[in-house]
Amino acid sequence: MTVDGTEITDIGLPPGARVIPDWITPAEETALVAFLDEGAWSDELRRRVRHFGYRYDYRARIATPESRIGPLPEDVQGLGRRMVEDGIFARLPDQVIANEYLPGQGISAHVDCQPCFGDVIVSMSLLSPCEMQFGCVATGERRAAILPPRSLLVLEGVARHDWTHAIPARRSDIIDGVRVMRGRRVSLTFRTMRF
Ligand SMILES: O=C(O)CCC(=O)C(=O)O
Ligand SMILES: [Fe+2]
């Protein structure tokens, strides 16, 4: 398999990353998307986003204590509490970004802000599956994995700090050898502020 012309030798997740399938039910998924769609999505990027807890500044690439919006909405806070109960976070996540990806939209390779955000990053996938690509900053090694809807992707350790993650901006993915057209995907990324 090749990703952007680079041969991928080891398909899968980088060390320190795991996918927890079916972490929420289809009914919870529907309710969450409805909640997100009731509010105002921001058009500041090529994909739509909503920020909760603290606003992330895409130009400066930081979130600061001054960027505080307020407490997380109860629906989102409840998921954070469940992540703490499940031992995924040691303390309650307090910064969440919702991303909406329509077919053809993606997110470029990045490491989440290291001075701003803690050592665990969790991304919840809703609606459509998609491929996420990973790149080791030191060696250039590439990996890729499919994120199923209602799953959690947990990034910690090396996967959080030393590998980039990205979603290719395309309209379909190869899943189990079959080309699958993307639908609308919404994700919620949970983080803890370091401040
Ligand atoms: O959509 C995703 O699953 C990832 C989002 C992401 O990487 C981010 O918000 O930093
Ligand atoms: Fe990220």
UniProtKB/TrEMBL annotation:
Domain of life per record: Bacteria
UniProt keyword annotations, A-Z: Dioxygenase, Oxidoreductase
UniProt keyword Oxidoreductase present: yes
Segments forming domain Fe2OG dioxygenase: 92-194
UniProt entry tagged with the keyword Zinc: no
GO function terms (MF aspect): dioxygenase activity
Alphabetical list of InterPro entries matching this protein: AlkB-like, AlkB-like_sf, ALKBH4, Oxoglu/Fe-dep_dioxygenase_dom
Family matches, as Pfam families: 2OG-FeII_Oxy_2
Stated name of the protein: Alpha-ketoglutarate-dependent dioxygenase AlkB
Species this chain originates from: Rhizobium wuzhouense
